[in-house]
Amino acid sequence: MRNAIKRIAAAAASLSVALSGFAGIPQLTASAAYGQGGNGTAIMEYLDRGIYAIKSGNGMFISWRFCANDADESEFRLYRDNILIYTSKAGQATNYWDAYGSSNSVYRVDTYVNGVLKSSDTSNFTSGSNYFDIPLNNPDSSKYSPNDCCVGDVDGDGQYEIFLKWDPNDSQDNSKTGYTSKVYIDCYTLKGKQLWRIDMGKNIRAGQHYTQMCVADFDCDGKAELITKTCDGTIDGTGSAIGNAYANYVDSSGTVLTGPEYLTLFEGATGKALDTIDFPVPRGTATGNTAKSTWGDNYGNRCERYNAAIAYLDGVHPSAVYGRGYYTRLSLSAVDVRNGKLVKRWVYDTGFNTSDPAYGQGNHNVMVADFDNDGKQEVCMGASCFDDNGSLLWTTRQGHGDAMHVGDLDPNHEGIEVFLCHESGSYGISLIDGRNGNKIWHYDGDKDTGRCCADNILAGNGSAEFWGSRPAGAVYNAQGQQIATKQPSTNFLIYWDGDLERELLDNIYITKATAANNYQTIFTADGCASNNGTKSVPCLTADIFGDWREELVLRTEDNSRLRIFCTNTETSVRMTTLMHDMQYRMQNGCQQSSYNQPPHTSYYLGSEAAVPGRPNIKLNNTPPEPVNGNLVKNFLVKDSANADGWKLMSSNTTGGLIYGDRDFTYTSLASDLQNCEYIMTACNSKNTDADLAEFTADKDMEVYVMVDDREISAGMIPYWLSGYTRTSLTASSSNDVTYTAYKKEFNAGDKVVLGTNGMTGYVVNYTVFVKEKSQPNCPPPSMNIRVNYNTQYHQIQFVWDKVSGADRYGIAVYLAGKWRVQTSSITTNSYVTPKNLTPGMTYKVAIAARVNGKWDTMDAIKNYVTVTVR
């Protein structure tokens, strides 16, 4: 039945594509029957709108998220400098090319459902290029380069932070001896602020197989943690040592084969070690003849190879899974975080039992997926797969391999598929049924097949394409039929352009498969470098912000920065962020393990198929929806960590409570502010380094911000109050604080943003009073209409001066001898016509304002403008 539904959905999507088009990109609509991306119980991270704006040609490209908690019918209104420039209605894309924008423009997206404002978000990421740089604190620029990265939201604000592992130039593969320099893990905000550094210490060797990072919100409190292997001498982000700070287990050959081993839980926001346990599967004897007869060597090659994954083993919470060994002995250990402690969930260990079906059946990487469709994820080690309870689900008995791809690679085959390459046996490549480990098809190779790749890169085949370094010169479809004789690159993948096929990523180049045997470079990341030698992998690919396309994270050539490249190609596809697909999100965490592999979604994506249905998940830490007062409309608290302490009140007066998280009261309050509408803030919001709240002025108003006089004396008044005027109005509190009011006037419809407090220590947070401004009783003046032309889309934009007291504007066009109203529901001072007006046509256009319920049509007609479509 599921296959039939898939075929029906694909046919419907093909019909939709045939009947419509937009700039050569197919119009696709969502189909709830196609792909879920969740089990209904998994708790995943809340993400904000994730708006970015980057330079694109002579304009700006703006992109934002469609999240799992957004309603299907969500309407997104995009503003530039408070002027509405685009409305994305249900099913329309969440990106826009703005011909009139610049890197100095301020972009905002308001989200409406059935005409009700649900959220308002301003872009935090605007660039005059197509990338954003994160400046790094290099431990030693002569030795270290940025290597693997992961993302997690460490403070619960809906924006990711980035975890970075530094790789020294003397790092070693496990097969080689030799001393290595220390490994460091840093955490940075996407704005480039370093939050902490963990020094892994001398007893952790540097190399691709040693330090794997598990980053997720393991306890589902809205903030991400880090779990990784540690040893005596690891220094956490606060400077505290784990175990014996002075221990040294590095032997004369530069390897570490003795000494205690740990698994440590670190707080994401500070890098503080919260809990440390013994590593669940110790190495045992790793030297001498005993190790040779058990592990297969006595110099740490096999026993010191680690993998790490994150998986929803219970279908609700993420667990960390750490693997040790795969050439011979293979083990996996699953741990949870409960009440701030690491708790073992299960351990699978073949030991040195060569008859165990999983013995030697592991890869240089690990991926997770719900292979048995029970709502819980399994862990795939390549040639073996382990159920959510830690039991062996299946094994291919084909042995170790270097690469794999796990996803819905064939939408006409039930369930998830696994594509593998093989280092031994018959070599070559295999497509595996993820439900049972059976081969769907296989091709032998003539030697070690070290690379393979699979995804839908070429439109029209109805499935992924498959290829490996052996057999050479062959690309296959899902049925194992050869469809091309020239292979594309095999290193990595990325969603980059506007269609639903995936692009190829190799080194700093993104390539597009335009036809069988035809691959064209469409993007080059100049000034950057890839990692891990000929594997040429990025630091990270992930849907970090913007719409569903992926960002590319590379290091700059001088190793001083991480550079995040974003697509500036328009798409007509509205789709939920990939990071709210359970499988993609968890595989993104697996990406960095050993030999990096790209993540895959739980659903198939292709131009011939329907867009997948919305993810069925739960989100934590979701901010409250906006509330309305008398003068204050669409009041939104942005400081989610302290949102419970904020409240919009009809008034406040002497004796009233000042903060929602303190018992301080006003002992005096200026009479001009008594009984005015009041925004009660949280005193703890003084510690938040971001905008705290925002609202829309429903009427012309005066906003009074009460500032702690100690900030004024210290010259630390918040920067955003520079447009406010200091007044003589004051207040005092029961805790002996005096306040002075800063005032600014706003017109009806203006957006008011309440920024940071300025100081954090030895002060209290500001508070806010709002009162109505008296309205002049005079007719609206001329609105000074300005006209902008978009020759690419044959559109016209009208911008005019706001009219004091106006709550609505209307547009009329002179047609067939009469003024005919086109719209009368405009609430901002801007209007953009529909696309594709007829070039050369000339129109008279009048704009009227409604003040106190009356339309000034006569003044509007007197001040009409004449425009000609270009």
Number of alpha- plus pi-helical segments: 5
Order of strands, widest sheet: 45-47-53-49-51-50-46
Distance between the termini: 52 Å
How would you characterize the largest beta sheet?
Answer: 7 strands, antiparallel
In one word, what is the shape?
A: globular
Mean of residue pLDDT values: 92
Radius of gyration: 30 Å
Structural class: mainly beta
Oligomer: single chain
* Helix residue percentage: under 10%
Q: What's the β-strand tally?
A: 61
Strand fraction equals 35-45%
- Give the low-pLDDT segments: 1-35, 776-780
Describe this entry's structure for a reader.
This protein is mainly beta. Among the domains are: 632-772, no CATH class; 785-869, Sandwich (Immunoglobulin-like), CATH 2.60.40. The chain has 5 helices and 61 strands. Strands 45-47-53-49-51-50-46 form a 7-stranded antiparallel β-sheet. The protein is globular and about 95 Å long. The two termini are 52 Å apart. Mean pLDDT is 92; it is low at 1-35 and 776-780. It comes from Ruminococcus albus. GO terms for molecular function: lyase activity. InterPro entries: FN3_sf, Ig-like_fold, Integrin_alpha_N, RGI_lyase, RGL11, RGL11_C.
